Amino acid sequence: PAVPMAGPCLVLDMEVTQKPSRPHWHERHVQPCLAELLGTALFIFMGCLAVLEDSGGTGRLQPALAHGLALGVTVAVLGDISGGHFNPAVSLGVCLVRGLHMTMLIPYWLSQLCGGMIGAGLAKAVAPSERFRNASGGALGAITADEQVPAALVAEIVLSSFLLLVVCMGTVNGRTRTPLAPLCIGLAVTVGVLAGGGVSGACMNPARAFGPAVVANYWDYHWVYWAGPMVAALLVGALLRLLMGDQATRLFLK
User: What sections of the protein cross the membrane (predicted)?
Assistant: First the structure.
């Protein structure tokens, strides 16, 4: 006897079971922004508190380790949800190399800036008021005169480019992606603070500058800490899209 063919209902059921379900809108839009808010708040709280409590004469070592370790840990635990940016310049760079959809860029920026204010506010709440005033709330205060601005701006561009290159090559670029990216990102921040902390403060993150500036009302040369990282994001994005990226990232020479 002839073997009966599978009915259309059976074929439809098989197709439905094989088709992967699309993530819920909450996981695609809300959770990433919450992760960026939470991660940025924790990172900046740890960083500001390290600056405020650095009374043992350790120089840049304590802030460098605190910033680098805090960022590496938060990227490791929250990176699978949002990408672990916690930095408006990183979000811009990742967006340029097609690691973040353009529609999520502004929500990420708002989440990071709000997280920066929350983290700086928490640092103010737990730190002694005298130390908070002396350290300007953990805000970047390395620039004290106009003649220091060119060197500080160049330092911010170079240090931020180093960080963004590590982020984009370690997490987005297909040929160089690595599970050690959180460790590499944390080390990049640590090295940046150790190397350039005396020149510009080694911010490399507009949210890190914005949060303490709002809480402490300290805005001296604040624009440098936006211009440097954002220019770096454009430079690294152009480098990967034109020359260094893998075939899926490059615009030309495919």
Answer: 33-52, 64-82, 149-168, 180-203, 223-244
Residues 137/59, Cβ–Cβ less than 8 Å: no
CB-based contacts of 251, cutoff 8 Å, min separation 6: 241, 242
**C-alpha atoms less than 13 angstroms from C-alpha of 201 in its C-beta half-sphere:** 28
Of the options 1.10.8.60, 1.20.1080.10, 3.40.50.1950, 1.10.10.10, the CATH number for the domain spanning 27-244: 1.20.1080.10
pTM score? 0.88
Encoded tokens for 183: 């460790």
pLDDT in tens, 63-119: 999 999 999 999 999 999 999 999 999 999 999 999 999 999 999 999 999 999 999
Q: What is the pLDDT of residues 159-218, one digit of tens each?
A: 999 999 999 999 999 899 999 999 999 999 999 999 999 899 999 999 999 999 999 999
| 17: Cβ contacts below 8 Å, ≥ 6 apart | none
Buried b (16+ CB within 10 A) or exposed e, 113-150: bbbbbbbbbbbbeebeeebbeebbbbbbbbbeeeebee
Spatial separation of the C-alpha atoms in residues 189 and 165, rounded to whole Å: 12
How many other CB atoms sit within 10 Å of the CB of residue 34?
A: 16
Where along the chain do its domains lie?
27-244
